[in-house]
């Protein structure tokens, strides 16, 4: 399987002066242009794909729309690739009426077994990693020798690295991805060897200087 993980375009939650909650915000005008550039570039470099998945969050939905359109493919939306803190500890997304307003007052990787939102019902960093890992392992089973795109979030890509590289609970390196940056992993079956290959990370060939976030 060739797995392409793509971060959404710039959203209002990515703006340095954003003071609202880190919830379901749409793309900015720049984010819309980043998504359009991604959709124009991808088919020239990846002619065929077998499946497209996306986070159910608005910024991922708006990013995947032009991509799915150019490929003429349906999108499989999945709650497991929502950003960290946007699901409860049972992996279900928060509802409109019960979503907590604030993150806890620590960075998630500093306390990986503590709820990341100010409620005991929130997922921890390890719950988040588990749901990302479950999603990836399901893709391996369902899409043997296929090409899969996943439009998701920076945190999802970061913890895909942790899952695939078998990193422990405490992290010492942040894996950064630009908005609409593309990461390519390949699952290969070599008995007695590693089963994953990292082909590339944070590819942004489609972004001009004015489209860089």
Notes on the protein architecture:
The protein has 213 residues and is of the alpha/beta class. It has a single domain, classed as Phosphoglycerate mutase-like (Rossmann fold, 3-Layer(aba) Sandwich), CATH 3.40.50. It is built from 4 helices and 6 strands, in the order E-H-E-H-E-H-E-H-E-E. The chain has helices at 29-45, 58-71, 125-142, 154-165; strands spanning 2-7, 51-55, 75-78, 147-152, 182-187, 196-203. Helix 1 packs parallel to helix 2 and helix 3 crosses helix 4 (154-165). It starts with a strand and ends in a 10-residue tail after the last strand.
Quickly give the CATH architecture: 3-Layer(aba) Sandwich
| Radius of gyration, taken over Cα atoms and rounded to an integer in Å | 17 Å
Task: Name the average pLDDT.
Answer: 94
What are the low-pLDDT stretches, counting only 5+ consecutive residues below 50? none
CATH class placement: Alpha Beta
| CATH homolog superfamily | Phosphoglycerate mutase-like
Read across the widest sheet, the strand sequence of neighbours is: 3-2-4-1-5-6
Strand content: 15-25%
Structural class based on helices, strands and sheet pairing = alpha/beta
Straight-line distance between termini: 30 Å
**How many domains make up the coordinates?**
1
Question: Which oligomeric state applies?
Answer: single chain
Number of helices: 4
CATH topology: Rossmann fold
Number of strands: 6
């Amino acid at each position: 399987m060739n797995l392409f993980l793509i971060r959404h375009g710039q959203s209002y939650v990515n703006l340095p002066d954003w003071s609202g909650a880190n919830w379901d915000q749409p793309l900015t005008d720049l984010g819309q242009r980043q998504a359009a550039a991604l959709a124009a570039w991808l088919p020239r470099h990846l002619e065929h794909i077998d499946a497209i998945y996306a986070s159910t969050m608005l910024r991922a939905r708006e990013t995947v729309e032009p991509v799915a359109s150019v490929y003429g493919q349906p999108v499989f939306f999945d709650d497991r690739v929502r950003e960290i803190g946007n699901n409860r500890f049972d992996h279900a997304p928060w509802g409109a009426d019960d979503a907590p307003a604030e993150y806890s007052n620590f960075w998630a990787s500093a306390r990986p077994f503590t709820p990341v939102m100010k409620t005991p019902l929130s997922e921890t960093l390890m719950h988040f990693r588990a749901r990302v890992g479950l999603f990836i392992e399901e893709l391996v089973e369902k899409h043997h020798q296929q090409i899969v795109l996943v439009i998701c979030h920076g945190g999802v890509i970061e913890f895909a690295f942790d899952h695939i590289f078998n990193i422990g609970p405490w992290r010492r390196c942040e894996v950064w991805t630009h908005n609409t940056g593309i990461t390519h992993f390949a699952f290969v079956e070599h008995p007695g060897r590693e089963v994953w290959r990292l082909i590339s990370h944070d590819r942004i060939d489609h972004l001009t200087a004015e489209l860089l976030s």
